[in-house]
Amino acid sequence: MGLRHRIADSGVKVPSNMIVAGDNGAGRLSNVLLSPDEIAGITQSAVPENPQLPSGRHDGSANILFCDGHMACGTRIKWVEKTPNVRRQWNNDNEAHPET
Q1: What are the sequence ranges of the domains in the chain?
Q2: What percentage of the chain has pLDDT greater than the value 70?
Q3: Which of 42, 28, 74 minimizes the C-alpha distance to 55?
């Protein structure tokens, strides 16, 4: 679920497990993008692999902020693995949504 609209705090089922912001890529899209599945209306299949989302600017890792205010650091691969646990972090309903 990309950030197409604002979500009320009450709409986030598990704030400690939802990504809200983090280190993103470089270039013209760097200030608006974080999710590797949402590139300004371009589907992931159109941009199959972008090594800048999230960024690896900290020795190959990205700092990620969660809705409850805590931060975590990990490699880009950690944040975009196509596993249920990782996919839940990108969705306010805390569901994996394998279709994304």
Answers
A1: 11-88
A2: 65
A3: 74
